[in-house]
Design a protein that fits this description.
11 strands; seven-stranded mixed sheet; globular; four-stranded antiparallel sheet
């Protein structure tokens, strides 16, 4: 059974930082692309950042470029999202995704 488990969410003031982590189990992690998406209250789920299996390609939503960085550690079956200079509009539930599997989500709340 494939599982993706997120951790690291919480409440932070605007301008602060958080690091989210997603650990996976149940399949060969290093063969698959990974991504983070988020869903704010009343909005649809949107792409935040992605990294390919070989770690030589990353992509980011325009809204987070220069503030968020995605990492993966294939030895630990983990993909992290370092979030700096957080803004209230970053408030959302953040999901780890590796097709076709989703994590359960972790809440990030940024206060102004």
């Amino acid at each position: 059974q494939v599982q993706l488990v997120e951790s690291g969410g919480g409440l932070v003031q605007a301008g602060g930082s958080l690091r989210l982590s997603c650990t996976t189990s149940g399949r060969a992690f290093s063969w698959y692309n990974m991504a983070w998406l988020r869903q704010a209250p009343g909005k649809g789920r949107e792409f935040v950042a992605g990294i390919n299996w070989s770690r030589d390609s990353t992509s980011y939503a325009d809204s987070v470029k220069g503030r968020f960085t995605i990492f993966r550690d294939n030895a630990k079956n983990a993909v992290d999202l370092q979030m700096n200079s957080l803004k209230p509009e970053d408030t959302a539930v953040y999901y780890c995704y590796s097709s076709p599997y989703w994590g359960q989500g972790t809440q990030v709340t940024v206060s102004s």
